Amino acid sequence: MASDQWTSRIGFILAAAGSAIGLGTVWRLPYVAGTEGGGAFFLIFLILLLTLGSTLLLAEFVLGRRTQEGAIRAYKNVASNGNWHWIGILGMVTAFLLLSFYSVVGGWIIAYLVRSFSGQVTSPPGGDYSALFETITANPWEVGIAHLAFMVMTILVVQRGIRKGIEKATVYMMPALFILFAVLVVRSLTLDGAWEGVVFFLQPDLSAVSGQTLLTALGQAFFSLSLGVSVMVTYSSYLGKSENLPRSAWSVVYLTILIAFMAGLVIFPSVFAFDLEPDEGPMLIFTILPAVFGEITFGSIFFTLFMILMLFATLTSAFSLVEIVVAPLIRGKEEQKRVKMTWTVGLLIFVLGIPSNLSFGLLSDWHIFGDIFFNQLDFLVSNILLPIGALLISLFVPWKMSKTDLQEELLRGSNRGNSFFSMWLFTIRYIVPIAIVVVFISMLAG
């Protein structure tokens, strides 16, 4: 039974939305949309997020709140016989590995943020922004210290627990994130030539849609909601029984959509205003955006604001990834063990992240199956472990939990009726697993 709980519904929603938003929405979604054709991809992404993504999110909420347990124990609570608890263990391992390289990107953001205060980022020597990125990531001391700083920030919040740590931090960070985004959206939309970027982002060209577009959009929908790692199982285990789960799930989905929409309106109008290419890929915010901000009035200030925004988004996701690993290890002895265990887990994640951090410098020639360590670990987590975790959860919740328990927990505190429950149950039992299998096979084949 969870002894630490969210003090308010808004605290839970902001923390869950913070976990969901993170780099998956602010960093990954714009460059994926850029490479997949813009408007058509974004439209399909929204449809899948509102249907299949919200269905799986609600399944994790139901499991966590019903059992009041996080990863491992939630699955044992429902199915004491068998090996279903390995879903929780898989989630912990996935979160551990994911944060090991995710925190490296967080370190890059800190390194860029520090340099942005002196104007170095928007005015690099010779105007070569790609060379600047290579210089920063190839410096083991700069990225190493920044990486450690990011993990220490994460640890200092998580060690204080749900109420005093994660909830308190996200209640301030998330509104600040929205305000910063609003400022940057206004600046981006007032650039000459910005409208072309808006059209690219929001006007669907359905003739450009392919099977790969559909599959990529579905994968992004799950990625953007932090699904498949049991993060939302853990977070909802701290939720009171009186809360309306469908309303909370929809609130998280709507906030994710809002941030995705705002991220696109910051990035694409800026890119098109300066005749740059939107399909730059993962390095979009580190090589293209500095060039954009370097050409506008007070660009250095706006880029610093953007990096602060990115740091907030990255940290709110990191909180949840550490919490899912720490929570099962301290359950029942939270007050005695939380601080020590949080530091232990956080520093171990930092150590595991060192090879990823050096992949662009000292270890750039060390290839595993033809690619650097960072990219291979990213592929393992994003294309293999996350889809497997999502699939197992989509099978466990509707088939191992009793229909009575599912209905009672889903509708508790809600004014929704049995027809809503029946539709949700059918979707999570049949449509979501099939969709995940199709995405998983396609990714492996590709």
Automatic annotation (TrEMBL):
- UniProt keyword Nucleus present: no
Q: Which residues form a coiled coil?
A: none
Q: Which InterPro entries match?
A: Na/ntran_symport, SNS_sf, YocR/YhdH-like
Location(s), subcellular: Membrane
Q: Does the keyword Transport apply?
A: yes
Principal localization?
Answer: membrane
What name does this protein carry?
Answer: NSS family neurotransmitter:Na+ symporter
What is the species of this protein? Geomicrobium halophilum
Its placement in the membrane is given as: Multi-pass membrane protein
May I have one GO cellular component term? membrane
Q: Which CDD domains match?
A: SLC6sbd_Tyt1-Like
Q: Give the Pfam families listed for this entry.
A: SNF
Q: What keywords does the record list, in alphabetical order?
A: Membrane, Transmembrane, Transmembrane helix, Transport
Transmembrane stretches, start-end: 12-29, 41-63, 84-114, 141-158, 170-190, 221-240, 252-276, 296-329, 341-360, 380-399, 420-445
Which superkingdom does the taxonomy of this entry point to? Bacteria
